[in-house]
Design brief:
The chain has about 200 residues and is an alpha/beta fold. Helix content is about 35%, strand content about 20%. It has helices at about 5-10, 25-30, 75-80, 90, 105-115, 125-135, 140-155, 175-185, and strands at about 15-20, 40-45, 45-50, 55, 65-70, 95, 120-125, 165. It has one domain (about 5-185): Metal-dependent hydrolases (TIM Barrel, Alpha-Beta Barrel), CATH 3.20.20.140.
């Protein structure tokens, strides 16, 4: 380890880009009954897909996150170091089991300790899929986002031990709904939100 690396590790590190891998119930557990069939997980051969409003989404190709790319596996692709014209999947290598730190907050804190990271923002991975798949139905968008935020609060908390700050979502498709969501998040201790 070089002197500069040691000095860097001695400084407080705040990681602003960590992600959780949600369980299927993250989108469905708190969904109002009138939307009980609006979000479903379906098997197509060996693949699981999310079906929203009777449309199969492949926006996130593996929405159960049982097997995932290893941390850092996409770095060369996004750095433009793809001289052979490979696909992202070809460049990422073999999939691994989702690390426990992506599934629960106590393991995330242990991983932060291992990495020498003091605090981190923790983003939901399925959020982009929701807004993409429900764009034509703002009421459904707000309902699914709120259901995800409720699950996130229950499963991760919005401020876990003052170290993991999970980022609930505020969707701006409907102003009154966005304001209600903001009030809910603030009342439950959110320190940050993803808009």
């Amino acid at each position: 380890m070089t002197q500069s690396t040691e000095q860097f590790r001695d400084a407080p590190i705040f990681d602003a880009d960590q992600h959780m891998y949600e369980t299927p119930e993250a989108l469905t557990k708190y969904l109002p009954k009138r939307y009980s069939r609006a979000v479903q997980f379906a098997q197509f051969g060996r693949q699981t897909r999310i079906v929203i409003n009777n449309r199969v989404s492949d926006f996130i190709p593996n929405p159960t996150f049982e097997r995932v790319a290893a941390p850092g596996a996409h770095e060369k692709f996004f750095a433009g170091e793809n001289t052979e014209g490979l696909t992202l999947r070809e460049m990422q290598g073999k999939a691994i089991e989702a690390p426990a730190a992506t599934r629960n907050p106590s393991d995330r804190v242990a991983e932060l300790d291992r990495q020498g990271v003091r605090e981190a923002l923790n983003y939901p991975t399925l959020a982009s899929l929701i807004e993409h798949a429900t764009a034509d139905d703002p009421e459904l968008t707000l309902a699914v986002i709120h259901a995800l935020n409720q699950w996130m609060l229950e499963h991760w908390g919005f401020d876990y031990e003052g170290r993991v700050f999970s980022t609930p979502i505020i969707n701006l498709s409907e102003v009154d709904g966005a304001q209600r969501e903001l009030e809910y998040l603030l009342a439950n201790g959110a320190k940050v939100a993803l808009i």
